[in-house]
Automatic annotation (TrEMBL):
Keyword Lyase among record annotations: yes
Modified residues (N6-(pyridoxal phosphate)lysine): 62
Protein name: Diaminopimelate decarboxylase
Keyword terms of this UniProt record: Amino-acid biosynthesis, Decarboxylase, Lyase, Lysine biosynthesis, Pyridoxal phosphate
Residues annotated to bind substrate: 287, 324, 328, 356, 385
HAMAP family named among the record's database cross-references: LysA
UniProt KW Amino-acid biosynthesis keyword: yes
Similarity comment text for this entry: Belongs to the Orn/Lys/Arg decarboxylase class-II family. LysA subfamily.
GO molecular function, one term: diaminopimelate decarboxylase activity
Subunit description: Homodimer.
Length: 427
């Protein structure tokens, strides 16, 4: 993302002064660099094109979804993962083609499955054994030759180094079918015996915020050893998402080009050993496309200085739009929107305005000593799992979202209104 201070000490994103964007759209404000989003989508395409393999990039819409985001994905030839009727509805409302949508989730309800089928979705990732008869039964009304393509989500038992809450590929998990206890093999047998389901291949998602290719390489070895042992052919291999981003200087960003060089070269080697053709490859990046594309801008309110102890800077948002720090202890960079070269910096705690001691955005952030009410602060790398995880706790309104680019500025989501907060309440 292109954030930099201009000659007047004003923070800019893609050349647009943050302060003037705030004048137009208020705070808290999530600002995406649209050109960055596009460049990330294009980067994934170019890696797979370079390797000349059949592929699709299926964006995990849980990271950030909105009508304009979905339209942008469509314009860049992306496919889409959804995990709920709500994500599906958003995609369909944006005009995203149903045939490019993949339905995920460890507990798809009959209602959701039926809705997806009726709206043309023909691609499901099976997460549990009982889902097979459920989807097969609901597909009964489809045209004879209109089979539903399915992958099974397996647990390749690969250790990953990430937060326990976002680690998913291990045996003891609510997600997926186990290779070792026979559930995955049983699922394939059931699918092959079903009326309307077409077994297409394997899916796994190892976890999120992974910094290197090693877990993906290990997964390929484990999965093909199992496929060989069970004598199973696949048309599609879906390696999931989880490619890490740089929240702070301490984080290692997953190296997309070299990382996929390693993964794809290993895959080619393994395929050769097992005498198989290259399957259609899928990946499901979410965070790596959106996280570093956005900042959230807040206005400073109360400042509480406890001499010799701590300084608390309160902002006009908090865990309602920034849950990742309270939930995962995630660390972020917090920077002033206006730079004053003469002022010294002090460690300060940046906290939200919600009634919860854990409503912390960042601890001991180096911020100007003379920071005052009305100043603006920007939290970087807030493009993934921020708006999409926002809540109305304390009846906080969800923030506005804008896209900026070399071509200009456009609003993509309006700030939630007070009226909307109670629109479903019976008066
Ligand atoms: N595919 C599947 C099946 C997934 O479960 C996920 C994320 C992804 C793809 C995308 O992963 P990504 O590339 O975005 O890391 N709320 C947490 C993240 C939960 C991720 C859940 N699944 C966070 O804020 O870190």
């Amino acid at each position: 993302m292109t954030t930099e201070y201009n000659e007047f000490g004003q923070l800019t994103i893609r050349g647009h002064e943050v302060q003037s964007l705030v004048k137009d759209y208020g705070t808290p404000l999530i600002i995406y660099d649209e050109d960055h989003l596009v460049s990330m989508m294009d980067k994934y395409h170019s890696v797979f094109k370079h390797h000349q393999v059949p592929y699709s990039i299926s964006y995990a819409s849980k990271a950030f979804s909105s009508i304009q985001m979905i339209k942008l994905l469509k314009s860049r030839n992306m496919e889409l993962d959804v995990v709920s009727i709500g994500e599906l509805y958003t995609a369909l409302q944006a005009g995203f083609p149903a045939q490019d949508i993949h339905f995920h989730g460890n507990n798809k309800t009959p209602y959701e499955i039926d809705y997806a089928l009726k709206n043309g979705v023909r691609f499901f990732i099976i997460d549990a054994l009982d889902e097979i008869s459920l989807i097969d039964g609901l597909a009964e009304d489809l045209e004879e030759d209109d089979a539903v393509n399915v992958l099974i989500r397996i647990n390749p038992s690969v250790e990953v180094n990430t937060h326990e809450y976002i680690s998913t590929g291990q045996e003891d998990s609510k997600f997926g079918l186990s290779l070792s206890n026979g559930a995955a093999k049983k699922a394939i047998d059931l699918i092959k015996r079903s009326q309307h389901l077409n077994f297409k291949g394997i899916h796994y998602h190892l976890g999120s915020q992974l910094a290197d290719s090693q877990p993906f390489i290990n997964a390929i070895s484990n999965v093909f050893a199992w496929l060989d042992q069970e004598n199973i052919d696949i048309d599609i291999l879906n390696m999931g998402g989880g490619y890490g981003v740089k929240y702070t200087e301490d984080d290692v960003r997953f190296p997309i080009e070299t990382g996929f060089d390693d993964i794809l070269n290993h895959l080619k080697k393994v395929l050769k050993q097992s005498n198989r053709n290259m399957p259609h490859l899928m990946i499901e990046p979410g965070r790596s496309i959106t996280a570093e594309a956005a900042i959230t801008v807040y206005e400073v309110g109360t400042i509480k200085d406890i001499p010799g102890v701590s300084k608390y800077i309160s902002i006009d948002g908090g865990m309602s739009d920034h849950i990742r720090t309270p939930l995962y202890g995630a660390d972020y960079e917090v920077i002033p929107v206006e730079l004053n070269e003469d002022s010294t910096s002090l460690p300060s705690h940046v906290v939200g305005k919600l009634c919860e001691s854990g409503d912390v955005i960042g601890k001991n952030k180096m911020l100007p000593e003379d920071i005052k009410r009305g100043d603006l602060l920007a939290v970087k790398t807030t493009g993934a799992y921020h708006y999409s995880m926002a809540s109305n706790y304390n009846q906080m309104q969800k923030p506005a979202v804008i896209f900026v680019s070399d071509n200009g500025v456009r609003q993509v989501i309006k700030r939630q209104s007070l009226e909307q907060l109670i629109e479903n309440d019976i008066r």
